[in-house]
Design goal:
single chain, 568 residues, five-stranded mixed beta sheet, 24 helices, 42% helix, globular
């Protein structure tokens, strides 16, 4: 009662009891929209659609124009696309190539140098190169970052200055590039549409569209023995039937995100004969009656992105593809998007986080529709099989294995590069094709299929490097990214390099992978490895991780413990 009297005598307090008009908020919660930022974003987007699946493309426009993503621009983009600020922010902060700058923070300098620190480049002195650049450049003018594999392992060490890659990089080459303002991608000579068409290109596609039987083509692909060359190795033709069995609309999603360190075969093919791939892509799209093709290409390949944009336009001008049928999408620096469901999430404008399965993407893929997913090299072979018959692959046999493989070879060999060899080739054959070991180096170990495959000792040099042949030894061929180590290298240090990569690239969705990779890196830096604890950690990661990243990340640990116990 006394309390009521006190309140009555005191009277209403301003700002406490908001019962009258004009006492509430005059604007929405959170960051406020500014007219200047909104005008700038609208000018950049122009007449482009404001669909949510184009969020990453629109973020690239802002990043490319201003060198970063300011809070004001993110707020304006959210307004323009009718999305929540949270949705825009979580996507922008997920990808490594977007620089989000909040109020009061200093934007990054105008020029960024990314030094590759994956295994092949580390063997070639990338860490020393990065340290020398940091000492010799003004951090207010140039930012130097460590970066994962750029798909140029044959010319290690490699760095990217702006969008210009410098092969066999040195401090002197960097200073020369800065002085010459060489920061844009250099497009190599390649077979363009006119040259490809003059040699009979797209005749096969046109014949199939006119009177082809998709099941007959599928049988031809199956007879060739072609399997998914992104690493999974699933029989390629079978996918067509799975997707076709589901009601439309159907899509094709092409995985051009070859982020597995040591892999550069897709880039090698695209920088030379892009139309062999593009025709195969359109044949696959015809086979499943796809309404649209989404071509997802990693951002680390600016020259390839330039080539594809030009040649897709040439296909549209020639009437081979209707405008917009091939939707070229640009990744933003996330290795996890090489996993097919994470790639599809990214195509939809989201964070690249793998989906739980089932359902599989052949049933529920892009926008919930049946989707055929293929790798670049796989589609390159589809064209050749349709033109030359299944014998183009099946007629080659070595060590009981049939077909051909594009081996990306780097490390301590005389001539790193991409080598097309019989699928039954051993590491001895691969090293011989690459000119033997580099001078002064003796063969010690090799990575048969990227860091996910771990390391094998030189003594295991008689295993055919193909699908199914390596599994009995606890590893796999994957994307055929072969990195060769010598007697001057440490298997232990190589494994630590691989786990640091997985630690950086884990999407963070599942605890076993997110925490496990970081914990593994800590344990591997000890003078003596706690093998029991590392094995326990590896088992948890393999058994409980959602996708292949966490499931395969322990392979380097287990294989060093097994084959190189003297180092730990």
């Amino acid at each position: 009662m006394a309390l009521d009297e006190n309140a009555k005598n005191k009277g209403p307090e301003k700002g406490v009891w908001k019962s009258g008009k004009g006492k509430g908020r005059h604007h929405t919660k959170g960051r406020q929209l500014t007219d200047e930022a909104w005008d700038q974003v609208r000018a950049l987007l122009g007449n482009r659609p404001r669909r949510s699946d184009l969020l990453i493309e629109h973020l690239h426009l802002i990043q490319d124009e201003y060198g970063h993503l300011s809070a004001a621009h993110l707020r304006a983009l959210a307004e323009e696309m009718r999305m929540s600020m949270a949705e825009v922010y979580e996507v922008a902060t997920f990808y490594a190539h977007f620089d989000v700058v909040k109020e009061g923070e200093t934007p990054p300098p105008a020029l960024t140098i990314r030094v590759c620190d994956s295994l092949s480049c580390e063997l070639a002195g990338a860490q020393q190169l990065k340290a020398a650049l940091e000492d010799g450049l003004d951090p207010a003018e140039v930012r130097v970052l460590r970066a994962p594999c750029m798909g140029r392992c044959d010319t290690a060490p490699v760095l990217e200055i702006g969008h210009h890659h410098i092969d066999h990089a040195t401090v002197e080459k960097v200073h020369a590039a800065i002085a010459a303002d060489e920061t844009h991608a250099h497009v190599p000579d390649y077979e363009d549409f006119a040259a490809y068409a003059a040699g009979g290109g797209y005749v096969t596609l046109k014949d199939l569209r006119a009177n082809g039987d998709w099941e007959a083509v599928q049988e031809k692909v199956l007879a060739s023995g072609l399997r998914g060359l992104g690493g999974a190795g699933f029989p390629s033709g079978k996918k067509w039937g799975f997707v076709r069995a589901n009601a439309g609309p159907r899509y094709v999603a092409v995985n051009g995100d070859e982020g597995e360190p040591g892999t550069f075969k897709d880039r090698w093919h695209l920088e030379r004969t892009p139309h062999l791939f593009l025709e195969g892509m359109l044949i696959a799209a015809w086979a499943v009656e796809a309404e649209k093709v989404f071509l997802y290409m990693r951002d680390e390949y600016p020259a390839v992105l330039d080539i594809l944009a030009r040649e897709i336009k040439a296909l549209e001008d020639a009437g081979i593809a209707t405008p917009g049928y091939i939707d070229l999408r640009r990744g933003a620096g996330a290795y996890i998007c090489g996993e097919e469901s994470a790639m599809i999430e990214s195509i939809e404008g989201k964070r690249g986080m793998p989906r739980h399965r089932p359902p599989f993407v052949a049933q529920v893929g892009v926008f919930g529709r049946p989707t055929l997913v293929h790798n670049i090299e796989t589609l390159h072979w589809v064209t050749r099989i349709c033109r030359e018959g299944p014998e183009v692959l099946s007629s080659t046999e070595l060590n009981g294995r049939k077909g051909l493989r594009s081996y990306s070879v780097s490390g301590r060999v005389a001539k790193p590069g991409m080598y097309l060899l019989p699928a039954g080739s051993t590491i001895t054959d691969v090293i011989a094709a690459a000119g033997g070991m580099a001078q002064g180096h003796a063969f010690k170990a090799y990575q048969p299929g990227g860091p996910s495959s771990g390391l094998l000792p030189a003594s295991m040099n008689d295993i055919p490097l193909d699908f199914d042949t390596l599994q009995p030894h606890g590893t796999f061929i994957g994307s055929a990214a072969v990195v060769v180590l010598s007697d001057k290298d440490s298997a232990r240090a190589a494994a630590l390099n691989m786990l640091r990569f997985f630690e950086d690239e884990s999407c963070g969705q599942c605890t076993p992978c997110r925490v496990g990779c970081g914990k593994a890196v800590q344990l591997m830096q000890a003078d003596t490895w706690d093998t029991g604890l590392l094995e326990e950690l590896s088992t948890a990661m393999v058994d409980a991780s959602i996708c292949g990243l966490g499931q395969a990340a322990p392979n380097p640990i287990r294989m060093v413990i097994k084959h190189f116990p003297d180092e730990i």
